[in-house]
Amino acid sequence: MSKRLIINADDFGMSREVNEGTKRGIEEGIITSVSVMSNMPYFDDAVKFLKKHPQVSVGLHFNITEGKPLTTPRNVGNLIREDDSFFYWPSMITRLIAKQIKLTEIEEELKNQYLKLKKTGLPITHIDSHHHIHLYPKIFNTVSTFADSEQITSLRGNYYNTWNLTLGVWKKPILTQALVNIMLLLSNFRHKNHKHLFEINRFFDINWGSDMTLEEFTKILNKLPEGTTEFICHLATLSEEGNRKFLQPRHTVLNLLTKPTVKKHLTQNGVKLVKHKAI
After folding, report:
1. Which of 153, 139, 140 is nearest to 199 (CA)?
2. Of 141, 128, 133, whose CA–CA distance to 86 is shortest?
3. Cβ-Cβ contacts under 8 Å for 173 (sequence gap 6 or more)
């Protein structure tokens, strides 16, 4: 087997700064795939750019933890607060555990977000989610069943293996890493019939180590196993108006990925940059 690497930028469409950072990553030739947020304000800007860059695979970044739904609020009343915006992810998970949310509401919003992206004419190769919410077992079943019905060939998730236990490099044992791994493991155990959707062999979120040095990142590249690995990233440029605490880690990762030496190390280690497969 060869070493293949998908570098996917999440949150495309979220904001001007996120879009500009993602565009730069694509133009530099390091971002091979994106996940688009259909319910966020810069969706149209993202779509316009992607239509000029068909070399990039496009997926739905399913989102029920930020912004407002595309579905009429009365039809997703358990997903939203009084101002009609989604509950943030810790509250959403708590409500799911307490059985205060109907899965039919999640399915309806998923369909509407997917259809909005599909109507653009862009080929949709994959589905993932904001805050990895689809890895919650009950939601995973809803999203994976929907992916099958739409002939989507890739859902973020993978066969659980030892690489996941350390996420390639256990730079910081933070809560997010532990939660995502637990959810991933549960989904593997409970939904074995959907493993055909797991196109990738392993994934790692670069922003988990937002202060990662080039040397640390190079070590990960040097030790990539054979098969298909997906690196997830969240990119942005800085601006005077934006929240610097939110934007700075994303800008740091953008600068890391676009360093010329990164592509050099990929070539030296026989790693081929690829995108998600179309149907």
Report:
1. 153
2. 133
3. none
CA dist., res. 268 & res. 84, Å (int): 50
175 — pLDDT class (breaks 50, 70, 90): low
Does the pTM surpass 0.85? The reply is yes
228-237 per-position pLDDT tens digit: 989 999 999 9
Indicate if the pLDDT at residue 182 is higher than 80.
Answer: no
Classify residue 173 as exposed, middle or buried by CB count within 10 Å of its CB (0-12, 13-18, 19+): exposed
Can you give the pLDDT at residue 53?
98
In sequence order, which residues have a C-beta less than 8 Å from that of residue 9 and are 6 or more positions away? 21, 22, 25, 26, 31, 33, 34, 35, 233, 234, 235
Cα angle, residue 121 at apex, residues 118 and 127 outer, rounded to 5°: 40
Task: Report which of 158, 274, 167, 271 is spatially closest to residue 221, judged by C-alpha positions.
Answer: 271
Q: Is 203 helix (H, G, I), strand (E, B) or coil?
A: strand
CA 195 – CA 187 distance, rounded (Å): 9
Q: How confident is the model at residue 8 (pLDDT cuts 50, 70, 90)?
A: very high
Strand, coil or helix: what is 244?
A: helix
pLDDT at 188: 67
